[in-house]
Amino acid sequence: MGIPRRDIVEGPTELKGLPLAELAELFAAIGEKRYRAQQVYDALYVHRVDDLQSVEVLPKALRATLAEGFRSQSVQLKTVQDSADGTMKFLFSLYDGRAVESVLIPSELREADGLPRRRTLCVSTQVGCNLGCAFCATATLNLTRNLTAGEIVDQFLVASLYSDRPITNVVYMGMGEPMNNYDNVMKASSIFNDQRTGMVAPRRTTLSTAGVVPGILRMADENSLLKLAISLHATTQEQRLRIMPIAKRWPLEELMEAIEVYYRKTRKTITYEYILFEGFNDSHDDVRRLAKIARRVPSKVNVIPFHEIDFTHPSGISADLRPTSPQQFELFLQALRAEGVRVLVRSSSGLDIDAACGQLAFSDVHGRS
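Below the sequence we write its predicted structure tokens.
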């Protein structure tokens, strides 16, 4: 499940996405003082300036140098689609002409003033994906390249301009497998989680993986502050193989062993994501097996309705998957809770604009610019 080396973006050096230490190294290489790097860092991430030519604290000569050989904008907003439930889907074009989507989701819980308690940005980490999960629209796009750290951070900065309140949470659950772009994801996270930037706290930053075992172990070794979510969606190796080809590379038991190592080293609770498919993984036996999995380390299970991806014209098992009925969905939840499992239910936010879980694939680019 390795990635092709098509993750380098040609053109002027990208400033956005560089943590302060790397920015200082870059400035030293062009003969500038370290404090200039701090000024640019603050301009990009604290004051959230796109055009460094407007930063008057920088000397004109430095601004001219930056304009000639560097760029401070990593993504360009093409359209915003608005859902009836308040969700917004953003289509971004990248420097090389490629595109990604991200989704801003307001929570259903409300403050006293009626506004959402949380605003979660689902960011993309790759252009397309090569994992081939049968239930995911992004799988139909194939993988083109990794996003740079700047392209990841800039999704947040642009989306922030459209949010009525500050974005409170970031989830790496958009296009792509975050673990297959580990270094850039962690670099972006260091900027998100820097108290100076005022973006989001580590405890409100979640990385969701389909089960890339080396990435899980690396997070454990580094004692990463990010929260870890596992896209599980099946309770046996045979089931998982049918809908998630990654299970061939890293079988379910190997994945579970990695999760146990992760918990021993970090003591952080795991979230399992579990989409319910009619007649496939919604039986009482699945409840029993899922509860057994959830008890291996402290965890919670996020049960998710299946959002059909007919707009991608699926074939094979992808065409056969159907949502569990509302009645069976509720029975599954009740049975899982009866097993002592902590259960959450993911809402279908953005369903009317194909922005719900698993639906990111450029299904409709009509929206406001």
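The chain is about 30% helix and 20% strand.
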